[in-house]
């Protein structure tokens, strides 16, 4: 196997392995969350709300329009990838109890987000 294929295979395994651990412990942050996304730029839009779910620390969107994937650890640190069509953004931040906040960035835009548990 050449170096590229070996690296690609290792990446796929690293991504797939955590998703197949059926016996993983329940995360403190499991449940339904509403995430409000804001940008300081008018051209990027402002004020979208996305519903996400967290199950065993894995993030998934509750919306047919926006795809969300990522992970939150028990300490509350969160990394999420959002996409809709060809538009993609990554977000980082922290959850604590029933709320959270952080920053996000896309190809041409940046901003902040806040979250509340439903």
Question: In summary, what is this structure?
Answer:
The protein is mostly beta strands.
Approximate strand percentage: over 45%
Separation of termini? 48 Å
| Total beta strands | 8
The helix-and-strand class reads mainly beta
CATH superfamily: Quinohemoprotein amine dehydrogenase alpha subunit, domain 2
Low-confidence stretches: 1-23
Tell me the number of structural domains. 1
The helix-strand sequence is HEEEEEEEE
CATH class: Mainly Beta
Number of helices: 1
Order of strands across the widest beta sheet? 1-2-3-4-5-6-7-8
Question: Can you name the CATH architecture?
Answer: Beta Barrel
Overall geometric form:
globular
Give Rg in angstroms.
15 Å
- Give the biggest sheet: 8 strands, antiparallel, barrel
Question: How would you describe this protein?
Answer:
The chain has one helix and eight strands, in the order αββββββββ. By secondary structure, it is mainly beta. The chain has one domain: Lipocalin, CATH 2.40.128. The protein has an eight-stranded antiparallel barrel with strand order 1-2-3-4-5-6-7-8. A hairpin with a 4-residue loop joins strand 4 and strand 5 (77-84). The longest helix is centred in the first third of the chain and has 17 residues, at 3-19. The protein starts with a helix and ends with a strand.
